[in-house]
Each structure stands twice: as C-alpha cells, then as structure tokens.
Amino acid sequence: MEAPASMDDVSFQERVKRLVEINKVIEKLDPAIRGQAFALLESYVVTGKVTAGKPGGGGGDQQGKPPDMTDHDADLEAFVGTLDAEEDTPAKNVRALAAFMYKRYGKVAFTTDEMNALAKQAGLTVPDRVDMTMKGAKVKGKKLFQQDGKSFSPTVHGEAFFKEKYKVSKGKLPKPSADAAAKA
To answer: 55 lies in a domain?
Structure first.
C-alpha cells in the first residue's frame, strides 16, 4: 500500500493544477497583456481564490477602490508560501515578517507585539526577544531597522533589502489600528 502524500506534495499538485488552468486562459490572450493577466490571477495559484488588486501588488482594484482588507490572511499565507524553508531561522523569520508588513503597509512603524502576533498567525517561529533581533539586524554592515520608542520601522537599507531579498514593493494600504486588529 502506498503511503499518503505529504501536505507539501498535495499543495504542490494543487498549485500545478491551478497554473495549468490559468495557462489555458492566458494562452488565448494577446501576448502584450499576458503578463498583466497572470499577475491578476497570481493569488489564485497559492490560495485558490482571486483577490482584488492591481498587478504587482500595488493595492486597489481597477476602479480605484481600496483592496479588501480581509485578504490579509490569504496574502500572509501566499507570502509565507514563498519563503525558502532552508533559510527558516527565527531571526530570518522576523526579517521576512517585516518584509510582509512593508509589502502591505509601506514604511510604517510596528511593535514587537504586532510582530509576535503576525508570527503566530503565520505559524513561524521568532526569537523570544524580537526587539533585540531587530536592533541587531544588519546586512552588509547596514542596519535594517530604526527604533522609535517601542516601535521599529525599516531603514532605507531595510527597504532595499526587502525589495531585493523578498521581491516585494512598498505597500500603500493603511495600517489597521490596534483596536481594529484586536477585533479581527
């Protein structure tokens, strides 16, 4: 008797199936718009649902309306799905989660409590002292975060690192207030 497929194998097969579905549609389109069409359907590959948004993750739909804030969970799941499992260390998870925050909200300040909650939601392990990890986070001798009281925000070098390492662009969504986040 054959062993059941692991969850990774099942996820992989589902994504391949969705890619084939998308390809059947996109190959019928004018080559000039195929890239944009795929970008519109990219979330479907990972989550199985199409989320509103401009190609390239710019936020907002074609009518200029803000994107649905409930897509946070799907966006987080899709982002975590792109992370390299071989590089999965608690400190690198903090950087990745900060990149996710940057991708959604741009250069906004966030607290260690927000990072811990996001890590829990994403199922990622982070150090007990996220603040110390962010204080010491450097790439090529340049700090990735600046501290203002109990909050941290990416430095210019941090933004460049996020764009290069995680292939994200600066988000434009308004960051939900702490009260709204607690109700969600």
So the answer is: no
Enumerate the β-bridge partners of residue 145.
154
Q: Which of 88, 105, 83 is nearest to 165 (CA)?
A: 83
Minimal CA–CA distance to 108: which of 36, 169, 170?
170
Q: Note whether 154 and 144 are within 8 A (CB).
A: yes
pLDDT digits (tens, 9 = 90+) for 95-149: 999 999 999 999 999 999 999 999 999 889 999 999 999 999 999 999 999 999 9
Q: Are residues 85 and 167 in the same domain?
A: yes
User: Which residue in the block uniquely carries the two structure tokens 């340049």?
Assistant: 142
User: 38 CB contacts (<8 Å, ≥6 apart)?
Assistant: 22, 26
Q: How far apart are the first and last CA of the chain?
A: 44
